Automatic annotation (TrEMBL), chain A:
It comes from Streptomyces olivoverticillatus. It holds the Pfam family ABC_tran. Keywords: ATP-binding, Nucleotide-binding, Transport. This is Oligopeptide/dipeptide ABC transporter ATP-binding protein. Belongs to the ABC transporter superfamily. PANTHER family: D,D-DIPEPTIDE TRANSPORT ATP-BINDING PROTEIN DDPF-RELATED, TRANSPORT ATP-BINDING PROTEIN. It comes from the Bacteria. One of its GO terms (molecular function) is ATP binding. PROSITE patterns: ABC_TRANSPORTER_1, ABC_TRANSPORTER_2. GO terms for biological process: peptide transport; transmembrane transport. InterPro entries: AAA+_ATPase, ABC_transp_ATP-bind, ABC_transporter-like_ATP-bd, ABC_transporter-like_CS, Oligopep_ABC_C, P-loop_NTPase.
From TrEMBL, chain B:
It is found in: Cell membrane. Belongs to the ABC transporter superfamily. This is Peptide/nickel transport system ATP-binding protein. InterPro entries: AAA+_ATPase (IPR003593), ABC_Ni/Peptide_Import (IPR050388), ABC_transporter-like_ATP-bd (IPR003439), ABC_transporter-like_CS (IPR017871), Oligopep_ABC_C (IPR013563), P-loop_NTPase (IPR027417). It is a peripheral membrane protein. One of its GO terms (molecular function) is ATP binding. Transmembrane segments: none annotated. GO terms for biological process: peptide transport. Coiled coil: none annotated. Residues 5-255 form the ABC transporter domain. Keywords: ATP-binding, Cell membrane, Membrane, Nucleotide-binding, Transport. Gene3D superfamilies: P-loop containing nucleotide triphosphate hydrolases.
Length: 378, 338
């Protein structure tokens, strides 16, 4: 359906060149309280010293559980939120404190796609109005007129150009997400920040949108910061991946590093928790040797509050390898022994670089009690 | 001898302003004690409506239910509310997706767990509270004797889901219906909860219906699997059979749409084209035919006019011949799955 549409030629800029760079990026949301005068009584440390680089033409995946700061990072990079500290640069230009005027040309090159295709489109505007909005605001008049350009964009994202005058409610969730993509493409961006772009969609529709985004990356050379909680989707879409936990990047590397040779215990725990259809065989799991099962890792409890994150390593309260040092000394994000270049992890006691495990780690007390009872009973 | 839970030819219709929604259209399944049935489908496939009608939680004014729902030999369709009320909580219980809306913000967690226990057993306040503490401990809430007096908003998402499981299990129900119990949870917490449900089932021997959109979630959790599409069951079998050798083009589509941790990243996903049909006017014949790539092979016209039948036991509701289903899956679908 959408495969035969021709796409505009790739953007300028050589692939691999650093486009969007964050250094020590930090965002603390103040918590106000007290009476009669409200004062600052604390802060949600949503993002705390994040370094990352999105290169031209690549998809950089950001994974983590809710509250890890991945969405805040995306919003900081687009300057939708003001960073508390740190530096953001776009193509070498520092945009951390750039004003409206300086940002204007850059904003058209960095676009966003949002998670919820229901609330991110104005219900009172037609598709034509929504998609041409960015061009109108930026005073862009493409050759042939805006309407022709919008129809072309609708075609690119796999919508019927005849639907120009329809309203969002006339479309399904997947189609609405395509409208959001068309709007993001209207200004011919170099980077798209996609914040959970498929997690509100049904599986069969999710695949359509993932394929569409992949085609945009390959054929138009658009770079992506792909933010998602679904590890399999991120693996499918991103060449490099960073794992976040409680406001920090705990591991970053190529797709092969993160999914094949992870070092951080949290990355191991995440991968082990992904439910896979192969589990029905009872044997084959990712990285598992044929006929052997991969040992489970079951953490205890939930992610701690980012208002008072644990001292030292933030993962230590849920980690089975934690020692005294983990509470006092924050592990830096470095290249551990045996890692490839660019594969960094932040752990004092990294795991061996494989996803095949032969031991189980069960930290959840209820699970342990229940399994002991089962073992004793049967 | 009928099964512990036996649903036969269930039809559920809602009347709305726009017309009649055929939410469930002729669904049958059996479930024994100690077993888990997974119902998988996308939004609007009728999977949640099925569970609500089993428990009698639908809106009786706008809902029409036909067919048989037998729980331990007792007919539930058309049973008076007083009978259902006795069964709910005691014999059958439900876990919902969204623990924040399923728990009342006005009462402590402990009171909400104790209430059904008191109602069904006549236990005293003190006994019921003790029981609530026990249940919280069983589902892994730290410091249960203190946390029992907390309100739901003082619990994290994973803890609320655990509290809801405690509430559902407090009267030792023989049937537990879990509707997307882990969809709102993070992946590490989801893994804990799914394992916990399985372990608790081994202790209590209850029957579980697990409703989800995620084929990965059912893989390691359920025994039997039912795939639903547009209000109908399109495929049934043991979870192993369905995931290893699926027979319905819709199941193939679901599997092809899902990236896996082992799939080839250079291959695009194979989505199902189009969108699910409106249940106000479902397509005639096979409801999947407008999105199906195999209608021509199956005979074309027959898919558009004749409704395929889901055979009892292992099978799929599809006009393709059994032989053809096998070869198409092995030759065209399987190589693309990681």
């Amino acid at each position: 359906m959408t495969d035969k549409v021709s796409l505009p030629a790739p953007r300028d800029g050589s692939p691999g060149e650093p486009l969007l760079v964050a250094e020590g990026l930090t965002k603390h949301f103040p918590i106000m309280g007290g009476f009669p005068v409200k004062r600052r009584i604390g802060a949600v440390q949503a993002v705390d010293g994040v370094d990352l680089t999105v290169r031209a033409g690549e998809s950089f995946g950001l994974v983590g559980e809710s509250g890890c700061g991945k969405s805040t990072t995306g919003r900081l990079l687009t300057r939708l939120l003001e960073p508390t500290a740190g530096r953001i640069s776009y193509r070498g230009e520092d945009i951390t404190r750039a004003g409206r005027r300086q940002l204007a040309p850059i904003r058209s090159e960095i676009q966003m796609i949002f998670q919820d295709p229901y609330s991110s489109l104005n219900p009172r505007q037609t598709v034509g109005k929504i998609v041409s909005g960015p061009m109108e605001i930026n005073g862009i008049n493409p050759a042939g007129g805006r309407e022709a350009r919008v129809r072309e964009l609708l075609d690119v994202v796999g919508l019927n150009p005849e639907h120009y005058n329809r309203f969002p409610h006339e479309f399904s969730g997947g189609q609405r997400q395509r409208i959001g993509v068309a709007r993001a493409l209207a200004l011919e961006p170099k980077v798209i920040i996609a914040d959970e772009p498929v997690s509100a969609l049904d599986v069969s529709i999710q695949a359509q949108v993932v394929n569409l985004l992949g085609r945009l990356r390959r054929e138009m050379g658009i770079a992506f910061l792909f933010i998602a909680h679904d590890l399999a989707v991120v693996r499918h879409f991103s060449q490099r991946v960073a794992v976040m936990y409680l406001g920090k990047i705990v591991e970053v590397g190529t797709r092969e590093d993160i999914y094949g040779r992870p070092r951080h215990p949290y990355t191991h725990a995440l991968l082990s928790a992904v439910p896979e259809t192969h589990d029905a065989d009872g044997t084959r799991r990712v990285g598992a040797p044929p006929g052997g099962s991969r040992g489970r890792i079951r953490l205890a409890g939930d992610v701690p509050s980012p208002v008072m994150p644990p001292s030292g390593c933030r993962f230590r309260t849920r980690c089975w390898k934690a020692q005294a040092r983990c509470a006092t000394e924050e592990p830096p994000l470095t290249r551990a022994d045996g890692n490839t270049e660019g594969h960094l992890s932040a752990c004092h006691f990294p795991e061996p670089p494989t996803v095949a495990r032969n031991t189980e780690v069960i930290l959840d007390p209820a699970l342990r009690a229940a399994e002991d009872a089962d073992g004793a009973g049967g | 001898m009928t099964a512990f839970l036996s649903v036969k030819d269930l039809f559920v219709r809602f009347s709305t302003e726009d017309g009649t929604v055929k939410a469930v259209d002729g669904l049958s399944f059996d479930l024994e004690r100690g077993r888990t049935l997974g119902i998988v489908g996308e939004s609007g496939s009728g999977k949640s409506v099925t569970s609500l009608s089993v428990l009698g939680l639908h809106d009786a004014r706008s809902t029409e239910i036909r067919g048989e729902i037998l729980l331990d030999g007792q007919e539930l369709t058309g049973a008076p509310e007083s009978v259902l009320e006795k069964l709910r909580g005691d014999k059958m219980a439900m876990i919902f997706q969204d623990s924040l809306t399923a728990l009342s913000p006005y009462y402590t967690v402990g009171r909400q767990i104790a209430e059904p226990y008191r109602k069904h057993t006549g236990a005293s306040k003190r006994e019921a509270r003790q029981r609530a503490v026990e249940m919280l401990e069983k589902v892994g809430i730290p410091n249960p004797s203190l946390r029992v007096d907390d309100y739901p908003h003082q619990f994290s998402g994973g803890m609320r889901q655990r509290a809801m499981i405690a509430m559902a299990l407090v009267c030792d129900p023989e049937l537990l219906i879990a509707d997307e119990p882990t969809t709102a949870l993070d992946v590490t917490v989801q893994a804990q909860i799914l394992d916990l449900l399985k372990d608790l089932q081994q202790q209590t021997g209850s029957a579980i219906v697990l409703i989800t959109h995620d084929l990965g979630v059912v893989a390691n959790t359920v025994d039997e699997l039912l795939v639903m599409y547009a209000g109908r069951a399109v495929e049934r079998g043991s979870v192993r059979e369905v995931l290893r050798a699926p027979q319905h083009p819709y199941t193939w589509g679901l599997l092809g749409s899902m990236p896996r941790l082992t799939s080839d990243v250079n291959e695009p996903l194979t989505p199902i084209p189009g969108t699910p049909p409106s249940l106000l006017a479902p397509p005639p014949g096979c409801p999947f035919h407008p999105r199906c790539a195999y209608t021509a092979e199956a005979g074309g016209e027959v898919c558009r006019t004749e409704r395929p039948v889901l055979p009892p036991g292992r099978g799929a509701a599809c006009h393709l011949s059994a032989e053809r289903k096998r070869t198409v899956f092995n030759e065209q679908i399987k190589p693309r799955l990681g």
